[in-house]
Amino acid sequence: MRYPKEVVLKEGREAVIRPLQRDDEEMLRRFYAGIPERDRWFMRHDVMDPAVIAKWMDDVDTNKVYAIIALAEGRIVGHASLHMREFGSTRHMGRFRLMVLPEFRYKRLGTWLLLDLIQLAMDKGLSEVRADFVVGIEDAAIEAANKFDFFEKAVLKDYVRDEQGNRRDLLIMIKRLHKSWGDF
Amino acid sequence: MNDISGAIIRQSAHGSVTIRSRCSPEEIRTFVFDSQFGTHAHYKSLYTRRESLENNAALPDADVTLALTDNDHIIGFGVLAYPEPGERWARLGPRLMMEVKAIEVSRNWRSAGVAGGILQTMMNRPMIEDKIIYMVGYSWTWDLDDTGRSTQAYRRMLIRLFEPCGFQEYQTNEPNICLKPENLLLGRIGRNVTKEQKDNFKWLRFDMFNTEE
Hints:
The complex is a heterodimer of chains A (about 180) and B (about 210). With about 180 residues, chain A is an alpha+beta fold.
């Protein structure tokens, strides 16, 4: 796919989407430092641990993870990734992860990142993609996923706990990637 | 490939093909439209009647480029014209943006470089450098059945076809394009297009171009 991709967000702010590169490490650290602790809590890894970001950098240019970033005003304002398995029963399935800086939410940046990952997943020949969301926390992302025809696969009731110990639902959403059009 | 007085001649397994640009309605009327341009089980040609090409050829600045066999059969065509007044792409200003409305080659004559020749011929015109030329690819119009390609492979093929002529992919929030992730907008900005026009094209792609400004 061609990069960088220029997008215009709501209110006319501009951003550029491109793949994550090895020399983006420091900029990515600063990005996650700007993500509220409340959001970081629900991430799979502790992104404040330097080893986590360093590991992500090691994954750049591998066939397992494909990461993109959105840049605006000289900094990273969004980070999204497609995770793939090279072997086994779920190798047809990709998993998405996506994070956007609070001041860039509700401005369609997440939508553009999601669209780019969908196109990439199609390019990679995947037939389904999955994204997990915490209900009540990631509602903007759920709305964007709905617009891209993701559907609810399962809700794990009270599956996760927030930092205060309150239980929240985890929503698993799936999107099928069609290789051709139906005959209807 | 030879270039004889503005017409490109290509050799294919089925014989030679002459590609001629800016064909007039009268000229088009003298040619035979290949029967493959019609309705197939999973695909319908963009233009199924020769008259549609004639009508397009009569439009201002329009270019209907034809690929013709030795016996004057139309086996490929390209149509370049201004967008309809109600379309988003017409809002940038009069006669600034032009659309590659169609490039199609008869099923029997594909994979011989005919489509590339049609596009190359259409872009070989000084006026092109004053324009923003665009192409909208809707996956539901693609002949996936005959080509055996997936939508994504077909999309990549289109990009490969257009890139040598200076086109590149652009992001847009145009609702019809956004309907499917494999749909695409390709554009070519002419050398004489001003910075302001380029900027306006950017805002237009995201529906933020205000003509009253």
